[in-house]
Write a structure and sequence with these properties.
The protein is an alpha/beta fold. The chain is built from nine helices and nine strands. The strands form two sheets. A seven-stranded parallel beta sheet has the order 5-4-3-6-7-8-9, sandwiched between helices.
Length: 274
């Protein structure tokens, strides 16, 4: 059905295994960080397709962000330029989203970076810089956005926050240990806040993808290592951004409240945990 966004529910809610739930975000005010491309762009489009009004956050790629904005169904969407790893810019991004959207119901923390810094190949200065940048963008930024959004949501009656983590939080990232650590931190603080904020009607979920067809992964997927990466999944491929968006929308939907604190793996069975 054109314009509709469906998701299969398998026992997560009381709809019965294999039933379909149509997601409707009509009138919901949504902020998506790092939404100029990749997963963030797909998430913004999916929310807009289901009636949401989206604040498209970007750091510096105005062209890509404008293309995302212009591709969104519906009206009322806005661009928010801010580096959310900087506390004052994170504050401004949330305040501007609330002001320009006239509210804030849902936040998706998607902005992130991935930089290789193998312990045996980089010098100490490079090592320190990689950790500082990665933790700032991938962990401190989302934590600050969660805090700032929660202040508004506690006053407005509640909301939803979905944080993007990674398979690397569980599997490890030998060449990018700061990335794995930052995403493990996202999992930990998300579950802590899920407990703290549930009494305020604020529900938090996490999506942990493996490799995804995005600009961030394009070089490695096109390299000689690409085939081996695709072979990690029995499906013989990596995820599409739209598949990550589907999990995000489910966690942000009405009826998914009791999943708060959940981490959904979307990695094509490339890494299984129990």
């Amino acid at each position: 059905m054109d314009g509709a966004f469906f998701i299969s529910i398998a026992g997560c809610l009381d709809f019965g295994i294999g039933s379909m739930m149509m997601l409707n975000f009509s009138g919901k005010k949504i902020m998506v960080t790092g939404a100029s491309r990749g997963i963030g762009c797909a998430v913004a489009k999916a929310f807009a397709e289901t009636g949401g009004i989206v604040a498209v956050n970007f750091k510096d790629n105005q062209k890509s962000a404008s293309e995302t904005l212009n591709a969104l169904d519906g009206e009322g969407h806005v661009l928010i330029k801010a580096d959310v790893s900087i506390p004052e810019e994170a504050r401004r991004a949330v305040e501007e989203s609330v002001s320009r959207l006239n509210g804030l119901d849902i936040v998706v923390n998607n902005a992130g970076i991935f930089e290789q810094h193998p312990v045996g190949s980089v010098d100490f200065d490079e090592w320190c810089l990689a950790w500082q940048k990665t933790i700032g963008v991938n962990l401190i930024g989302p934590a600050n956005i969660c805090y700032l959004a929660a202040q508004h949501m506690m006053q407005s009656g509640g909301g939803r926050i979905v944080n993007i983590s990674s398979r690397g939080a569980f599997r490890g990232e030998p060449d990018s240990p700061a990335y794995g650590a930052s995403k493990a931190g996202v999992n930990a603080f998300s579950q802590s806040l899920a407990v703290a904020l549930a009494p305020h009607n604020i529900f938090i979920g996490v999506v942990a993808p493996g490799f995804v067809e995005t600009d961030m992964a394009a070089n490695i997927l096109a390299s000689p290592a690409g085939d081996a990466i695709r072979a990690q999944s029995p499906l013989g491929r990596v995820a599409r951004p739209e598949e990550i968006a589907g999990a995000v929308l489910f966690l942000a939907s009405d009826g998914a409240e009791f999943t708060t604190g959940t981490i959904i793996d979307v990695n094509g069975a490339s890494y299984l945990r129990s």
